[in-house]
């Protein structure tokens, strides 16, 4: 046929469109957008702003929890945005149709990664708005920039975990499965409130959770002391991401052979 | 197996749009395809006809490079089906249970068009798939038939030379089905190669230049629709009659007689002459029904013929 339009599209076009539509469809899916933004926001307002009261320590508490709830938010957007979507799309045959198309395979994962980052940043922005207006939080520009970087880069380990979980969750059970991991892990890592008030054994096992490492980096960004060095946490998270991706790759190839 | 063995398979593959050569595919201990060969020639419409579980979808997935054959080889345009340049010349409509629901029809077309170097203009895709007026509607608000039409539209986005349609009319109402048939014929008129799978004999008959009947992972018959139909003819006559089995079996064209409930079921080559004789001999004959054999019966008959 010669009626094909003479459109010279850039090789980047599928990447851009894939990302645009992945973001749009999740934003429009209220079950996704309301829970990923609403969970961290309501928890933060409750524990970080309302319960903080108006004492001299209240702004400090609001600031500390703003950092940890931002981490809580990006972990949610990464896990839901990758694990639930991939496992559903696979179970429903949509992933297969895309694999059969000339879509660049990297565009599929990249669009989900960028979307998770976008939601992570939105959640951070929303918390920052309520933290500064209602919680009297004040960050320096440097603290803000560091925290924003942590939010953006922090998506990688949890997106990797999401890709791995997508290979093992039962079809269409992604959301429940993610909640089962996401909520307890966040609590045990001190993202909901500082671990100081919890039993000692919970504090001592905290380093096994990836959320703890990212949470430590986040509070460090705004001037709190942390156990371990920055390099230590970053190295831990980098190794964690690599292990998740390698395992996910192995499992994906194995199930593709069986499918 | 009645597939022709070609002296030089690789030459044949180069001239074909797509080919499976002696492909066996196993899922664990289950063998889905057994030493199956099929060739799609440029510009022809081929139907893979068979009951559920016959291996039709497996054959399509192998041709799309979604599965690797346990044995044998797969080629599309003389190359591996996983090559991106090959995929850019292919469109596929697969059985998809659900697609992400919060994007609109037009957005999906925009997305899929971006995958191809020379996509069809959106208006042309919309017209061909019958999506006029619902481009702004989100997938979740579409009816079952509209969803199928959108999936068909996605297969057309890249103006492909080769189109795979896996059970394309499943769940479609009659009007939608006929529209889709018209579009498949128009693809063929424009020189496109089409492979469709179906378990509707009528669909294969209407659309295909060539039909491959597959059962349990092997080709049990292939030929033009006329050739295939001639092998699955026969009618069943059900009625209540006083006529004896001996009398009936003596009539020309009667294959078998069996008692069913209050009456009998007679299997015949052609119903008209047998009925004329029966009605003349038994004025009290009543509760008359004439039917074509169920497709499953036809497949069984074909399988038997091939293995005897």
From TrEMBL, chain A:
The chain crosses the membrane at residues 32-52, 64-86, 107-132, 144-166, 173-193, 234-252. Its main location: membrane. Keywords: Cell membrane, Membrane, Transmembrane, Transmembrane helix, Transport. It holds the Pfam family ABC2_membrane. Residues 31-255 form the ABC transmembrane type-2 domain. GO terms for cellular component: ATP-binding cassette (ABC) transporter complex. PROSITE patterns: ABC_TM2 (PS51012). It is a multi-pass membrane protein. This is Transport permease protein. It comes from Terriglobus roseus (strain DSM 18391 / NRRL B-41598 / KBS 63).
Automatic annotation (TrEMBL), chain B:
Transmembrane segments: none annotated. Keywords: ATP-binding, Nucleotide-binding, Transport. Signal peptide: none annotated. GO terms for molecular function: ATP binding; ATP hydrolysis activity. It comes from the Bacteria. InterPro entries: AAA+_ATPase, ABC_transporter-like_ATP-bd, ABC_transporter-like_CS, ABC_transporter_ATP-binding, DrrA1/2-like_C, P-loop_NTPase. Residues 18-241 form the ABC transporter domain. PANTHER family: ABC TRANSPORTER ATP-BINDING PROTEIN. This is ABC-type multidrug transport system, ATPase component.
